């Protein structure tokens, strides 16, 4: 069971790690150097690719959650705490690589990202409560 959970967590972290890896100046967030730009996709193909990738990400999260739900509460909390600690440590290391003016911008970007994340979590909670009332 533990090996399965570790494998699922590792697999779910791979896309994040891949995006963090240096790629010799190529950006993967749209623009001229996006991975699918080389394929000269039509707008319809791009939209369908986005839909497929979004569905794949959602499915991966559902699978991960299904295995997490099977863990005893103590192990689940320990795992989530360890993930949070690891994330905070990486964030600190990344920030320390930056110059002071870059750190300020990095902090602002991080705050915006966290605000969006909190807003999304609040929305998801609202949806769950709404669906329970129906």
Automatic annotation (TrEMBL):
Localization, UniProt: Periplasm
GO cellular component: outer membrane-bounded periplasmic space
Residues of the signal peptide: 1-20
Extent of Basic and acidic residues compositional bias: 82-91, 101-134
Record field: transmembrane: none
Source organism superkingdom: Bacteria
GO molecular function terms listed in the Swiss-Prot or TrEMBL record: unfolded protein binding
Gene3D superfamilies, per database record: 1.20.120.1490
InterPro entries: Cpx_auxiliary_protein (IPR052211), LTXXQ (IPR012899)
Keyword list, A-Z: Periplasm, Signal
Region (Disordered): 82-134
Protein family (similarity comment): Belongs to the CpxP/Spy family.
PANTHER family found in the cross-reference section: PERIPLASMIC CHAPERONE SPY (PTHR38102)
UniProt name for this protein: LTXXQ domain protein
């Amino acid at each position: 069971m533990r090996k399965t959970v570790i494998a699922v967590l590792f697999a779910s972290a791979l896309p994040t790690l891949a995006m963090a890896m240096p790629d010799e100046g190529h950006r993967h967030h749209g623009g001229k150097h996006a991975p699918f730009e080389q394929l000269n996709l039509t707008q319809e193909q791009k939209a369908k690719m986005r839909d497929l990738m979004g569905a794949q990400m959602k499915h991966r999260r559902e699978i991960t959650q299904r295995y997490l739900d099977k863990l005893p509460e103590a192990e689940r909390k320990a795992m989530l705490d360890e993930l949070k600690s690891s994330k905070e440590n990486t964030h600190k290391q990344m920030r320390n690589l930056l110059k002071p003016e870059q750190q300020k911008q990095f902090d602002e970007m991080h705050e915006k990202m966290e605000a969006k994340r909190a807003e999304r979590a609040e929305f998801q909670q609202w949806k769950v409560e709404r669906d329970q009332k129906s």
